[in-house]
């Protein structure tokens, strides 16, 4: 879904779409390395990593991904309504 939204950015804003995709990839990489580290720690006998900690970690990633998608959608919305005097922009400083 993020990729489809990023592709909606036009012209000079295409770089924003690339940036968003790079951030999403980095979050995925960090998530994968976290799970690998946790698995190695558990194999080594570390019992300090709790399910509660893991649930918090997953929730943090979910909130981050949701925020990125929301900002991307708002940016696209502002771009699509550029020049519309009756439209209220999502960002005070615009998208330029």
Question: Overview of this structure, please?
Answer:
With 96 residues, this protein is mostly helical. The protein has one domain (2-78). It contains 3 helices and no strands. The model has no long low-confidence stretch (mean pLDDT 85).
Distance between the termini: 24 Å
Overall shape: it is elongated
Estimate percent helicity: 55-70%
Q: Output the number of helix runs.
A: 3
Number of strands: 0
Low-pLDDT runs: none
Structural class by secondary-structure content:
mainly alpha
Number of domains: 1
Radius of gyration, whole Å? 18 Å
Question: What is the succession of H and E elements?
Answer: HHH
Biggest sheet overview: none
What proportion of the residues form beta strands (DSSP E)? Answer: under 5%
Question: Mean pLDDT score, rounded?
Answer: 85
Summarize the structure.
The chain is an all-alpha fold. It has helices at 2-6, 14-43, 51-80. The mean pLDDT is 85.
Write the layout of secondary structure elements.
Elements: H1 2-6, H2 14-43, H3 51-80
Helix pairs in contact: 2-3
């Amino acid at each position: 879904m993020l990729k489809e939204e990023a592709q909606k950015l036009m012209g000079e804003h295409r770089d924003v779409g690339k940036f968003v995709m790079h951030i999403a990839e980095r979050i995925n990489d960090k998530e994968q390395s976290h799970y690998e580290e946790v698995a190695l720690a558990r194999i080594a006998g570390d019992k300090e990593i709790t399910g509660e900690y893991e649930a918090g970690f997953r929730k943090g990633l979910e909130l981050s991904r949701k925020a990125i998608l929301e900002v991307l959608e708002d940016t696209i919305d502002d771009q699509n309504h550029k020049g519309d005097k009756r439209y209220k922009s999502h960002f005070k400083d615009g998208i330029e």
